[in-house]
Amino acid sequence: MDGEHPSPYLGEKCGVFGVFGHGLEAARLVHTGLWTLQHRGQESSGISAADGRQIRTHKGAGLVAHVYDEPALAKLTGHAAIGHNRYSTSGGSSSVHAQPVISSQNLLALAHNGNLPSTAALTGFLVSRGIATAGANDSEQMHRALEHELAAGAALDAAIARAFPLFTGVFSLLLLTRNELAAVRDAHGIRPLSIGKVDGGYVFSSETCAIDAVGGTVIRDVRPGEMVIASESGLRSVQLAPEQGRLDIFEFIYFARPDSVLLGRRVNEVRKRLGANLAREHPVPADVIVPVPDSAIPAAQGYSAVTGIPLDFGLLKNRYIHRTFIRPAQNLRESGVRLKLNPIPEVLRDRRVAVIDDSIVRGTTARRIVAMIRACQAREVHFLVSSPPVRFPDYYGIDTPKREELVAARMGVEEIRDAIGADSLAYLSYEGMIESTGLPESKFSTSCFSGVYPVPVAAAQEVLG
Question: 209 catalytic, yes or no?
Answer without folding.
Answer: no
